[in-house]
Design a protein that fits this description.
Helix content: 40-55%
CATH class: Alpha Beta
Strand content: 5-15%
Family: Belongs to the short-chain dehydrogenases/reductases (SDR) family.
Strand order of the largest sheet: 3-2-1-4-5-6-7
Protein name: 3-oxoacyl-[acyl-carrier-protein] reductase FabG
InterPro entries: NAD(P)-bd_dom_sf, Sc_DH/Rdtase_CS, SDR_fam
Shape: globular
EC number: 1.1.1.100
Order of helices and strands: EHEHEHEHEHEHHEH
Largest sheet: 7 strands, parallel
Distance between the termini: 26 Å
CATH superfamily: NAD(P)-binding Rossmann-like Domain
GO molecular function: 3-oxoacyl-[acyl-carrier-protein] reductase (NADPH) activity
């Protein structure tokens, strides 16, 4: 399944900064008719409206508040592409004193938030003929780094849910994309200490829309991600993306 975002309506969670802002800008650059900037505080999207005019529509959505997600889906009934970019990170190793609390916080946003967005918007996409659902995961979903073990666990779980969504939404002709960046130059990345070695968020935005256009499930946007993706490719092709229903 291949598609373009030209003349389509796109929704991006966490669109006011970092990767989300670049995704919104790239969607407009590629001809999207409208982009919903789904953010916790709609005032934070004012600069985007000032720059892009009525092609950007702020809408309130907080991954921690299920009611806000439901309300957003009831408002954005014209959306063709949903990109769930928002997420959280706590730098906690498994043995740290606050590790369980950190994992609970990350699971709530990164996993339950994903599920809430998918449950709310799947019917909207179905009504629009299928559309596209994109989840920003991470190389940390397939490789655990000890100083952020709880984050990695949450991203591994979100990737597992994304794989399930790929199969579940196939019947309604919704194309699911799982994006796996490495360290990226964002506020979150700086707080995590990624430094100058982190890649540009523009690489993530480009990879998303290239994957949509190509009909791909997995996207590995930056140099570190490409290295992981190359090593992972055989497993992805022969296990993750293979039809194993008859074998279970």
């Amino acid at each position: 399944m291949t598609s373009s975002v030209e003349n389509k309506t796109v929704l991006v969670t966490g669109a006011n900064r970092g990767i989300g802002k670049k995704i919104l800008e790239e969607a407009i650059e590629r001809g999207a008719a409208k982009v919903y900037a789904a953010v916790r505080d709609t005032d934070s999207a004012a600069p985007l409206v000032k720059e892009h005019g009525d092609r950007v529509v702020p809408i309130r959505l907080d991954l921690d508040e299920p009611a806000s997600i439901t309300a957003a889906a009831e408002t954005a009934t014209d959306v063709d592409v949903v990109i769930n970019n928002a997420g959280v990170l706590k730098q906690q190793a498994a043995l740290d004193e606050g590790a369980i609390e950190a994992l609970d916080f990350e699971i709530n946003a990164n996993v339950y938030g994903l599920m809430r967005v998918a449950q709310a918007f799947a019917p909207v996409l179905k009504a629009r003929g299928g559309g596209v659902f994109v989840q920003i995961n991470s190389v940390a979903s397939v490789k655990t780094f000890p100083n952020m073990a709880t984050y990695c666990a949450s991203k591994a779980a979100s990737y597992a849910i994304t794989q399930g969504l790929r199969e579940s939404l196939k019947e309604q002709h919704t194309h699911v994309v799982s994006v796996h960046p490495g360290p990226i130059q964002t506020d979150m990345g700086r707080e995590a200490g990624f430094g100058d070695a982190a890649a540009s968020p523009a690489l993530v935005a480009n990879a998303i829309f290239d994957a949509i256009a190509a009909g791909d499930f997995l996207a590995w946007p930056d140099p570190m991600a490409e290295q992981v993706g190359a090593a992972y490719q055989s497993f992805a092709e022969n296990v993750v993306e293979a039809d194993m229903q008859d074998e279970l």
